């Protein structure tokens, strides 16, 4: 199993059903040394507001989120779901777990 850290859209049960055909169970965690940045993405009906993670110069900056256990095929589904504004990288979470996270491309 892989670990996936979500700080935004992927925490939505509706989005999880759309991507995985099920609702995920997760655990609260944090990633340090990163911060959120506003992002506009063009969608079918216009521009939508999202956030994206970027590295921070302040190692004390923290992003709160949820870590999910997912399969490699689940990660491939998320790769297709996320726009080209994001890329997947591994980070060490506050808990010590290593997880995938989507950051600014």
What do these coordinates show?
The structure is a single chain. This protein is an alpha+beta fold. The chain is 17% helix and 52% strand. It is built from two helices and seven strands, in the order E-H-E-E-E-E-H-E-E. It starts with a strand and ends with a strand. This is Gamma-glutamylcyclotransferase family protein. Keywords: Acyltransferase, Transferase. It holds the Pfam family GGACT.
Structural class of the secondary elements? Answer: alpha+beta
Compute the separation of the termini in Å.
Answer: 25 Å
Describe the main β-sheet briefly: 3 strands, antiparallel
SS field, number of helical segments: 2
In sequence order, what are the helices and strands, one letter per element? EHEEEEHEE
Give the overall shape, derived from the CA principal axes: globular
Return residue spans where pLDDT drops below 50 for at least 5 consecutive residues: none
Q: Tell me roughly what share of residues is in helical segments.
A: 10-25%
Number of strands: 7
Rg from alpha-carbon coordinates? 13 Å
Average pLDDT confidence is 91
Proportion in β-strands = over 45%
Q: What strand order characterises the main sheet? A: 1-5-2
């Amino acid at each position: 199993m892989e670990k996936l850290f979500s700080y935004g859209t992927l925490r939505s049960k509706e989005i999880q059903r759309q991507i995985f055909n099920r609702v995920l169970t997760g655990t609260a965690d944090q990633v340090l040394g990163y911060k959120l940045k506003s992002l506009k993405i063009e969608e079918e009906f216009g521009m939508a507001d999202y956030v994206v993670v970027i590295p921070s110069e302040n190692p004390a900056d923290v992003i709160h989120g949820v870590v999910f256990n997912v399969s490699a095929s689940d990660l491939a589904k998320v790769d297709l779901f996320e726009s080209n504004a994001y890329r997947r990288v591994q980070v060490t979470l506050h808990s010590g777990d290593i997880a995938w996270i989507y950051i600014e491309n």
